[in-house]
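Long-time lurker. I teach an intro course on protein structure, and each term I like to show students one example going from raw sequence to a predicted 3D structure in token notation. This year I'd like something fresh instead of my usual example. Would anyone be willing to generate the tokens for the chain below so I can use it in lecture? Attribution to the forum is fine with me.
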Amino acid sequence: MSEELQMIVDDTEDGMKKAIGHLEVELTKIRAGKASPAMLDGINVDYYGSPTPIAQVANISVLDVRTISIQPWEKNMLQPIEKSIMQANIGITPQSDGNQIRLFMPPLTEERRKELFKKASGEGEHSKVAIRNIRRDAIEQVKKLEKDGLSEDAAKDGEKSIQEITDKYIVLVDKHLAAKEKEMMSV
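-- Reply from a regular --
Happy to contribute to a lecture. Here you go:
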């Protein structure tokens, strides 16, 4: 395989790895009834006028399967943190005792589980579309190389490699979704 062709194949695989990484991040944000500090990722609190992630103004810990504790480093941050969690609309009402905030995960109803799995499936579909777009772009690059003098056999081998990588990552998306569904239904 030529050096240029190998570079296209490697870039394709790197792009697909990034798509899987993005899927993993998005799936951790979908709560499956278990308490996870990752649920608070992306929620910013007003810290002296600048939006700051909660993890940078408080200690976040999981007390048990259904409880998250948020202990601000400064007591005056309790209200802003509570307000930010309410505005983020993550489906949990924060409860403060004056020293810390606790988030209690409500048990999931069957309807809510299906809704969450639908959301997870949507994220999986976005990842599959991203992977297919990466494949399409890579195959276009191979065809361009073929026009510029790459042999037809080498181009076919390159396209075959790209398709094999694509199939591998599509299966990986399906495995992630199956694991998330199992996690949602077991809680």
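Some talking points for your students: The CA atoms of residues 15 and 179 lie 23 Å apart. The chain has two domains: 3-29+109-186, 37-104.
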